[in-house]
Amino acid sequence: MTYKIKFGTDGWRGVIAEDYTFDNVRRAAQGFASYLLEQGYAGRGVVVGYDKRFHSENFAAATAEVLAANGLNVYLTDDATPTPVIAFEVVNKKACGAVNITASHNPPTDNGFKVRDPNGGAIDPEGLKRIEALIPDSVQEVKRIELRNALRDEKVVYFDATEAYKAHIQKLVDIQRIKDAGFTVVVDAMWGNGAGWFTDLLGGGKTKIIEIHNVRNPAFPEMKRPEPIRPNIDAGLKATLENKADVLLVTDGDADRCGIGDENGEFLNQLRVYALLALYLLEVRGERGDIVKTLSTTTMLNKLGKLYNVPVHETGVGFKYVAPKMIETNALIGGEESGGYAFRGNVPERDGILAGLYFLDFMVRTGKKPTALLKMLFDKVGEHFYDRVDTPFSGDRAVRERMILEAKPETLGGLKVTELVTVDGFQFKLEDGGWLLIRFSGTEPIMRVYCETTHPDKVKAILDDGLKVAGIT
Questions:
Q1: Threshold 0.90, pTM exceeds
Q2: DSSP for 451-470?
């Protein structure tokens, strides 16, 4: 039976050598090539990049062979390249899209196939469905030209994606000011594509950059997966304390997400970081514009929207929803619970490098360390507390979804349920303005239960009740 390639919230991911094989990657590439041709992009350029996972460069080469055989001109990165840099190069080279071989924050057993549109952003859900429909059932239906021949005919060209992006970034943030600040910054690259970037951008001044996990190791030692949340970042938090650093910056495997640790070696969760970045743009830089947030991220953004009189738009989970909304509204900032944030003036794609630089600039301009910045935020919107539980589930997903829908709890963690939103998963709004969300992952066979509340003593109780609603005890 033919393996069915399914695109989740951010492309297709699979287990290497089980379902993520060269033949299936070529089938996915043929589906994307057929989609681009259907859109009228014959003869246009496509950027292809990759991360540092097992065989990623070879999967990227296989993708390039298929795209080139379909009459597309391929720009193939000459090294592992951060996702935001690949996205920027789509616009910089006036390409019609991109393929990125990466599984982002997934376990080391996995790899993935991300696709991007001419804006460098995620393709919308209808486009993803069309790509799926165009994927051939057999690799025999895939067009392919050997890489050496494609290189000879200049249908595929290798290129260095770094310099143009670095020049672009320096138009968005004052790099020299950060270099002169005298910070000690620990950077955890999580064995991934973010390695070397902060050192290259900020080195040579008074600020000291200390990198850890900055070489290629597809096994991702000292972490379960390259996702910038605890416990994966515990080694980085420890290094922050050992080096008496001012801040910890963490980039995930493909460097599109950013995690932050404070000067005390404590993790600033991704909801707080999103609110802090929005506060930085609104208050410190004095910018105005719409905010786009997924329903799984913080209501602190809604409060900031009211304070600064800017619209806040809520979408389903994933940048396939966030990116189109950002383009539609020319949004100031867009983001999601996973630690991915995108910014106006850049491409509508998560950018862990720019997010980290903006956070450092926030520190420079205010003269505050991360704990003081968090207090500045809470003084405006009040304290908010968040946590998440990821759990495998068994049985039929549709049956479990029906069970959740029919549960109709009156309270969760002792707080009254005021509304149920089913835009993406099942979000139960709570009387304190908080929420509980039960959602099935679009990329892994797990169910996620998240919550945010203004009551620190109720986080566990809300999550426990949410697990019961989901049939997990």
A1: yes
A2: EEES-GGGHHHHHHHHHHHT
Angle of CA points 432, 435, 438, to nearest 5°: 160
CATH architecture of 173-381: 3-Layer(aba) Sandwich (3.40)
**Kind and range of the H or E run holding 183:** none
**CA pair distance 74, 153, nearest whole angstrom:** 11
Distance of CA 463 to the CA centre of its chain: 24
Where in the chain are the domains? 12-162, 173-381, 385-469
What contacts 187, CB < 8 A, 6 or more positions away? 194, 198, 199, 209, 210, 211, 212, 214, 248, 249, 250, 251, 356
| Residue 221 to residue 20: CA distance in whole angstroms | 22
C-alpha–C-alpha distance, residues 267 and 73, integer Å? 43
Please state which of the ranges 40-54, 139-153, 162-176, 382-396 shows the lowest mean pLDDT.
Answer: 382-396
> Binning pLDDT at 50, 70 and 90, where does residue 443 land?
low
Exposed, middle or buried by CB within 10 Å (0-12, 13-18, 19+), for 233?
buried
Superfamily of domain 385-469: Alpha-D-phosphohexomutase, C-terminal domain (3.30.310.50)
Query: What's the pLDDT tens digit per position in 73-116?
Result: 999 999 999 999 999 999 999 999 999 999 999 999 999 999 99
**Beta-bridge mates of residue 359:** none
- What's the fold here for domain 12-162? Alpha-D-Glucose-1,6-Bisphosphate; Chain A, domain 3 (3.40.120)
Please answer whether residues 326 and 343 qualify as being in contact, where contact means their C-beta atoms are separated by less than 8 angstroms.
Answer: no
Task: List the Cα angle 253/240/368 in 5-degree steps.
Answer: 105
